[in-house]
Specification:
Elements lengths: L12 H18 L11 H11 L4 H14 L3 H6 L2 H8 L6 H17 L7 H4 L7 H12 L8 H11 L8 H13 L6 H14 L18 H5 L14 E13 L2 E6 L10 E2 L2 E3 L5 H16 L7 E10 L15 E4 L11 H15 L13 E12 L11
Parallel strand pairs: 5-7
Antiparallel strand pairs: 1-2, 1-4, 1-7, 2-3, 2-6
Helix pairs in contact: 1-11, 2-3, 2-8, 8-11, 9-10, 9-11
């Protein structure tokens, strides 16, 4: 069993040779046909790695192909407007990745002439690229001897070594990075690192690992000890508290008010309805709070009429807080049918959809036009993670 940065005695030269041979043979037969594996172009490798952070493979596939069609080269991406990048990213979540992707593309063009560096240290200087992503680009695109460690390989190495402590803590990370470096072959680095991730994803699953079909089962200390259910050790569970949030629909002459979220806010750079946490209780106090906060966010005073409709409950793992800035950041009245041309969050689409369903269910005078600003709001209840940081901040 491994307990520190020293690998177990069983992980010797013979073990490493057998592990490499079995893993590469298995990968040659079982690797998935994924669109980003059709080329070792570093731009494609980098794009796929950023998209795959915190996101399932099947979800990423259409986004990857759509991005390549719109931005076939890093120079095309660098020259694009950020709003277009955010619009194409809609639905992938963690929008900080898209902004950093755009910034990194501009840096690659300005500092490296549009060619990705092949050095891990240089790659880590680009926005949004941490040690794992740099190692993936260097090894997969350039076949450099760089180790990788992400969710699938953390689980895989924890089980291979029977590491019983929390693998995400500093001691566990040191040991697993050391293991990932020690098992690297001298050649075939790209397929080897991809094989590690593939084995973790398809076979060494979090629950019910498929040890019966694992090519390295006889080399796995956890399998020998029968500790698959307890290794890797589970991290601390996130505690949630309930909060109430409102999305406000401000209307005038058939248009609705959207605002571009400011830097530092949740969904920064994206367009959304005025949205914030509700602190008041009772309809009169809520009305005054909504009017005040809409004006605070947009500089526009609305609320001649006010109607509350359709409350629902959703899990929300983001730290859902309102940045109470005095900066009024680009509010705009837009045609609801054209809102999709802006970069908007999936939750903005759902808010609009609920509002349209409510509109379609009502009988209205077709000749009636609302010339003054009126306001309606949708109230939501969220389960909020009891933490001071956002998930975005955890993305390296």
């Amino acid at each position: 069993m491994a307990t520190d940065c020293t690998l177990p005695d069983a992980i010797d030269t013979r073990w490493k040779r057998q592990f490499r041979q079995r893993l590469l043979k298995w990968y040659a037969k079982h690797q998935r046909d994924l669109p980003w594996r059709k080329s070792k172009n570093p731009y494609r490798v980098w794009l796929s790695e950023i998209m795959l952070q915190q996101t399932q493979v099947e979800t990423v596939k259409p986004y990857f192909q759509r991005f390549l069609k719109a931005f076939p080269t890093v120079k095309k991406l660098a020259a694009a407007d950020e709003q277009e990048v955010l619009r194409l990213w809609e639905g992938l979540g963690y929008y900080r990745r898209a902004r950093q992707l755009h910034a990194a593309a501009q840096q690659v063009v300005s500092e490296f002439g549009g060619r990705f560096p092949d050095d891990v240290a240089a790659l880590q200087l680009l926005p949004g690229i941490g040690r794992y992503t740099a190692g993936a680009i260097a090894s997969i695109a350039f076949d450099r001897r760089a180790p990788i460690l992400e969710a699938n390989t953390i689980r895989l190495f924890s089980r291979l070594l029977a590491y019983r402590e929390d693998p995400t803590k500093a001691a566990g990370q040191r040991l697993l990075w050391h293991a990932a470096e020690q098992v690297l072959p001298r050649k075939q680095i790209a397929p080897f690192n991809q094989a590690l991730m593939e084995l973790g994803s398809l076979v060494c699953k979090p629950a019910n690992p498929r040890c019966d079909v694992c090519p390295v089962a006889t080399l796995c200390a956890t399998n020998e000890l029968g500790l698959q259910k307890s290794i890797p050790a589970a991290g601390k569970k996130v505690k949630f508290t309930d909060i109430a949030e409102a999305a406000v629909v401000v209307r005038k002459n058939g248009k609705v008010l959207l605002r571009q979220c400011a830097e530092g806010e949740r969904w920064a750079g994206l367009w959304d309805f005025p949205r914030f946490e509700i602190e008041s209780e009772g309809p009169l106090f809520v009305r005054d709070e909504l009017i005040a906060k809409v004006q605070q966010q947009t500089g526009i005073r609305a609320g001649r009429t006010l109607e509350n409709h359709q409350a629902r409950r959703h899990p929300l793992s983001h730290h859902a807080r309102l940045l109470r800035s005095r900066v009024r950041f680009r509010p705009s009245l837009v045609d609801p049918n054209q809102a999709g041309s802006l970069g908007t969050h999936a939750r903005t689409h759902r808010t609009a959809a609920q509002y349209h369903r409510k509109e379609n269910c009502e009988t209205r005078n077709p000749s009636m036009k609302v010339s003054s600003l009126s306001m309606e709001y949708l109230a939501f209840e969220y389960a909020q993670a009891a933490t001071a940081s956002t998930i975005d901040n955890a993305i390296g």
